[in-house]
């Protein structure tokens, strides 16, 4: 296994080395933020197709986010993927999302191949992939697992709920954690559902964080545009200009309610397209003050797209409120138009969840580094027969050497 963490004092945190990190399909950098907040990871390369997301990433982490199609970058003979200790990233989830009516033919379903090609080139000790839960039931997941094994990795995969890790949002996402040596692990929850009071393993954990916990200190929003001249959190705390009819509709929705309440209370102002609609009970929904939010997507400023009405005010949540519900700190800088910023927020991996994953991976990397593994190993799939033979010989010599040392330490009769 390759552990490249530098021993140079310039790349040490509290006397401990920092590990080199690559973030693919990085967006604004929520995944990277969670890892860097441990103080032990150093971003060295990232990529995203969206120029504004890349600018946001560079502003917060240093200018190494390359804009463009990852397949074109990998096909360019001048491109160089740096060596890294870990690769993280979430290939676009739209190809697997239940909201995508054409997902079976969506070319984005194959972007995991580019991700694994970066893994092959960077040769990290570990990698973490994020996506919607549907990934784990797909044929692509079978292919990912097969490729992970071919490259010499052992993996574990599960669907995690962000609320279980301190994020004030019930957001379920699939995570695959893979390592070159040892057993991969997923983080243990740090918070619990209030309903789990009788669970002996969970009852000592603090309850899920709520919408109120995240946004209670914010005043009413001002204006309808990003206010770059205002310091955070007020810069992104702006509203919209709803019509009189929209306001009437908002007032019909109680805390925790949805479009069904509108249909029952004021059928005269119910949109025609909702009159015979089945399912979709989060549409035009109002959040609960004392519960986590539901999944924050890229159009959270449109109540008709989900459960995005403020719990107590007759308006949709603001960009700042959405960022907080994703666990972004106020001092994280978002660049771009308000539409672009909304996309960056809704597409992100919640930083607090990412940080919990980072801590678990960090334990593995430190343990591997401290185990005394000094030499560099190539992926089995990329070794030549000569390299494989040399590697086997080295390992045999190490085992023989250890056996001799053990034998020499035995008492003589």
Description of the structure:
- The protein is α/β, with parallel strands linked by helices.
- The protein has two domains: 9-209 and 348-370, Rossmann fold; 211-346, DNA Methylase, Chain A, domain 2, CATH 3.90.120.
- Helix content is 31%, strand content 13%.
- It has twelve helices and eleven strands.
- The protein has helices at residues 30-36, 51-61, 70-75, 112-122, 139-150, 211-215, 244-251, 259-265, 319-325, 338-346, 351-370, 385-408; strands at 12-13, 16-17, 19-24, 41-48, 65-67, 86-89, 126-131, 154-161, 172-179, 285-286, 307-309.
- The strands form three sheets. The chain has a seven-stranded mixed β-sheet with strand order 5-4-3-6-7-9-8, sandwiched between helices.
- The longest helix has 24 residues, at 385-408.
- It is globular.
- Residues 96-100 and 374-413 have low confidence and may be disordered.
Question: Characteristics of this structure?
Answer:
413 residues; alpha/beta; Rossmann fold; DNA Methylase, Chain A, domain 2; 2 domains; seven-stranded mixed beta sheet; two-stranded antiparallel sheet; globular; disordered C terminus
């Amino acid at each position: 296994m390759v552990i490249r963490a530098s021993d140079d004092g310039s790349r040490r945190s509290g006397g401990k080395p920092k590990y080199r990190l690559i973030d693919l399909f990085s967006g604004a950098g929520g995944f990277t933020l969670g890892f860097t907040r441990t103080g032990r990871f150093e971003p060295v390369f990232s990529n995203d197709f969206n120029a504004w997301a890349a600018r946001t990433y560079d502003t917060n982490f240093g200018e190494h986010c390359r804009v463009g199609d990852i397949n074109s970058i990998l096909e360019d003979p001048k491109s160089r993927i740096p060596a890294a200790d870990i690769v993280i990233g979430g290939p676009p989830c739209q190809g697997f999302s239940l909201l995508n009516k054409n997902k079976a033919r969506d070319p984005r379903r194959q972007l995991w191949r580019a991700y694994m090609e970066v893994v092959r080139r960077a040769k990290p000790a570990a990698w973490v992939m994020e996506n919607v839960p549907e990934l784990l039931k797909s044929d692509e997941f079978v292919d990912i697992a097969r490729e992970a094994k071919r490259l010499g990795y052992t993996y574990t995969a599960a669907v995690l709920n962000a609320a279980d890790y301190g994020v004030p949002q019930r957001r379920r996402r699939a995570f695959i954690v893979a390592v070159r040596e040892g057993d991969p692990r997923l983080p243990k929850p740090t918070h619990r559902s209030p309903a789990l009071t009788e669970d002996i393993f969970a009852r000592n954990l603090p309850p899920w964080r709520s919408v109120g916990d995240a946004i209670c200190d914010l005043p009413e929003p001002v204006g309808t545009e990003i206010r770059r001249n205002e310091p955070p959190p007020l810069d992104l705390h702006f509203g919209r200009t709803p019509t009189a009819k929209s306001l009437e509709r908002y007032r019909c929705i109680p805390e925790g309610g949805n479009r069904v309440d509108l249909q029952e209370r004021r059928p005269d102002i119910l949109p025609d397209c909702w009159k015979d609609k089945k399912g979709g009970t989060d549409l035009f929904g109002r959040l609960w003050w004392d519960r986590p939010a539901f999944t924050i997507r890229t159009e959270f400023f449109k109540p008709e797209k989900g459960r995005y009405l403020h719990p107590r005010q007759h308006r949709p949540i603001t960009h700042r409120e959405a960022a907080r519900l994703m666990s972004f700190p106020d001092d994280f800088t978002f660049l771009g138009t308000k539409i672009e910023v909304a996309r960056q927020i809704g597409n992100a991996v919640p930083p607090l969840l990412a940080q919990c994953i980072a801590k678990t991976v960090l334990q593995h990397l430190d343990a591997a580094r401290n185990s005394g593994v000094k030499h560099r190993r190539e992926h089995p799939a990329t070794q030549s027969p000569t390299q494989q033979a040399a590697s086997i010989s080295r390992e045999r010599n190490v085992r023989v050497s250890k056996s001799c040392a053990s034998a020499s330490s035995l008492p003589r009769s």
